[in-house]
Amino acid sequence: MSSRTVIRGGLVITASDELHADVLIEDGRIAALAASGTPAAEAWTAERTIDATGKYVIPGGVDVHTHMELPFGGTFASDTFETGTRAAAWGGTTTIVDFAVQSVGHSLREGLDAWHAKAEGNCAIDYGFHMIVSDVNQETLKEMDLLVEEGVTSFKQFMAYPGVFYSDDGQILRAMQRSAENGGLIMMHAENGIAIDVLVEQALARGETDPRYHGEVRKALLEAEATHRAIKLAQVAGAPLYVVHVSAMEAVAELTRARDEGLNVFGETCPQYLFLSTDNLAEPDFEGSKYVCSTPLRPKEHQAQLWKGLRTNDLQVVSTDHCPFCFVGQKELGRGDFSKIPNGLPGVENRMDLLHQAVVEGHISRRRWIEIACATPARMFGMYPKKGTIAPGADADVVIYDPNAEQVMSAETHHMNVDYSAYEGKRTAGRVETVLSRGELVITEREYTGHAGHGVYTPRSTCQYLN
After folding, report:
1. Cα separation, 91 vs 435, whole angstroms
2. 71-72 and 75-76: which strand pairing?
3. What is the DSSP letter of 395?
4. Which residues, other chains included, contact 217 with Cβ-Cβ below 8 Å and sequence gap of 6+?
């Protein structure tokens, strides 16, 4: 049985076009677009018609940096794959790429299998995996080749967190050399973790224990230094590099320089760095702990350089790094010692709305909104044009977005499984109204109509930007 849906009367926005068009969906895919009101569009018949008059019709968001159920700092991220993907759908995101974790002493395969087990049958939207590589050895390097062949085409390494995820320069170089051969993309958490640990120890010895010191010890210069070092190692290896959660203007400058030299170096930032700052980390009564993440929030003056980087394409992607921990019982583990506060913020539900607010405020254009939140992440991680656009043949991951609605972000009303909002009380223009994932209604006029298990695992091809 074929199923058909027509979306009529909306403004279709992709990374490349804006057009008043009707969209025909057939059997879970986009079948055709036709200018609204034309005989071609009027001739379509379907079991379901969605009126998008006065609304935007946009591709579902692609969030390529989430951490559902991540073990960290003696606890676990509070969103499961079920609650996290449902919240993503409420926020207009229809694909996530989460991070499977290799533990030291274990194989990549064990880590990947464990994450498949967590996600399978539980997701409301489609999902893929990156692989965190914590233990570089000959077996790991061979496994990287196998993973690329089966659609796990990106590998994350950490210059931070000694004793947990940390890789030294030699391990990083070996992994980069391997990815240069197998087509994989190395994603880098670029902070000098060895130096940061010294500064943490010294701060605590001085009695500087409040959350704001988390930001002060994780210095922007140590993010810039690690970004520079990662770029040079990638250059030596002849490998592409994707730097995650860029927060500091000095790190943006390193990426800009590398890209000006023609290197395959890419950068991602996150809404928290665009909208929040060290002012939040300094909130009294331990409230600042809600904003502890790494890389840390920076002083406000960094925001202008991040927006500029997004406009000039020296930063290409906005992901969330969604890694929520409840204030009560989780963030509180760090009372009296900021280094014990679990690192991470909730945000998978807020990204599309915050970036639309950036359109309203004139930071970016509507098409750039879709580019950095849908199309580029899909291309960067080998899912385009199946994901990230509205075009014939693409998966029917479609959001009806009301640009005239207003909302106030709040823990009272969000759907993430966490007891606070990083954007509590923030007013934004625009709101998701209806969400389709592969042609199925997941959010229907502000009601959740999806279900766990609809989302399927999505193998990926390699990065589509490599020259």
Report:
1. 9
2. antiparallel
3. B
4. 196, 199, 200, 203
Between CA 7 and CA 348 the distance in angstroms is: 26
**Measured between alpha carbons, how far is 224 from 217 in angstroms, rounded to an integer?**
14
Supply the DSSP string of 85-114, one letter for each residue. Answer: HHHHHHTTEEEEEEEEEPPTTS-HHHHHHH
Please state whether the peptide bond connecting residue 295 to the residue before it is cis, i.e. omega within 30 degrees of 0: yes
Q: By three-state DSSP, how is residue 286 classified? A: coil
Six-digit token string for 450: 């999806």
**Tens digit of each residue's pLDDT (9 = 90 or more) over 355-382:** 999 999 999 999 999 999 999 999 999 9
Share of the chain above pLDDT 90, in %: 98
Residue among 404, 403, 370 at smallest CA distance from 389: 370
CA nearest neighbour of 296 among 200, 212, 215: 215
Task: Calculate the alpha carbon distances from 416 to 289, 420, 422 in Å.
Answer: 18, 9, 11
Give 301-327 pLDDT, tens digit per residue: 999 999 999 999 999 999 999 999 999
Per the listing, tokens 């890419």 go with 266
Rounded CA separation 199/213 (Å): 10
DSSP SS3 for 454: coil
What pTM value is reported for the model? 0.98
- Contact criterion met (CB below 8 Å) for 316 and 325: no
DSSP string, 310-341: HHHTSS-EE---B----TTTTGGGGTT-GGGS
Q: Are 37 and 385 in contact (CB under 8 A)?
A: no
Question: Where does 194-262 show beta strands of DSSP type E?
Answer: 241-243
Residue 162 tokens read as: 């000694």
Phi-psi domain of 163 (left: phi exceeds 0; alpha: psi -120 through 50; beta: other):
left
Upstream peptide bond of 240 is cis (omega within 30 degrees of 0): no
Q: Which two tokens stand for residue 278?
A: 């060290």
Res 74: pLDDT: 86
Tell me how far CA of residue 275 lies from CA of 36, 162, 220, 291, in angstroms. 37, 29, 17, 12
Which residue is listed with tokens 């759908």?
A: 89
